[in-house]
Amino acid sequence: MKIIIAENMEEFNEIAADIVSRQIRNKPDSVLGLATGSTPLGLYALLADKYKKGELDFSRVKTFNLDEYRGLPKDHPQSYYHYMYENLFSKINIKDENVNLLNGEGLDPYKVCADYEEKIKAAGGIDLQVLGIGHNGHIGFNEPGTPFDSVTDLIDLSERTIEANSRFFESPDQVPRQALSMGIKTIMQARSIMLLISGSGKARIAAKALKGPITQNVPASVLQLHPFVTVILDKEAAEYL
Ligand code: F6R
Q1: pTM of this prediction?
Q2: Once rounded to an integer, what is the mean pLDDT over residues 14-42?
Q3: Is 134 near ligand 1, meaning CB less than 6 Å away?
Q4: Distance linking the first and last C-alpha atoms of the chain
């Protein structure tokens, strides 16, 4: 596990964008796994900027998003579909047919999840998976206690996650109670992983995940077992490392 501590958020975002850019330049048809949330927003802004300057070409890139809320229509302002188009896809030359998100509106979520696993395999697997981490150590929406061999599935969100994500909704009751998420095994099958952790609020969980025991109670601790993980933290998040 390679741990990089950035001086500030500007450097944090640049390091992350360099890793993604290198991946795409080395393999123009890369398969990227993408996260939503606050942490990767700066990364996505820089990637869009690099595309605008002619430094990056996404025409052959494929993406698979980690997760999606269950029951939110695609055009809901808090759907991850909406987030991805708003913050990245509408600003780069990725082809719609190369964008993959779990369909949270599907009538049979279990089939949606099983099909997603097959689609990732058919694409040749994920080359670089971008991850954030929840305050409870979740990756994707794999909450504490999720078995390490889990695959893409329908998940019940924990109270902690509902509370954390309620900042994006008018009230906590509007936060969906379920989500579809890649499993921990699905994430671990990516050839390389970049975990982004920023802010003092993540300092304790960062130390547990990166330096603590590998346990299902801290889902991100499983990443210690992956051979190619780069973790980027800002100074605040690295306080207890
Ligand atoms: C998002 C995702 C989540 C977030 C995590 C951190 O697709 O899978 O695991 O990465 O909840 O979210 P932020 O960055 O908003 O703190």
Answers
A1: 0.97
A2: 98
A3: yes
A4: 13
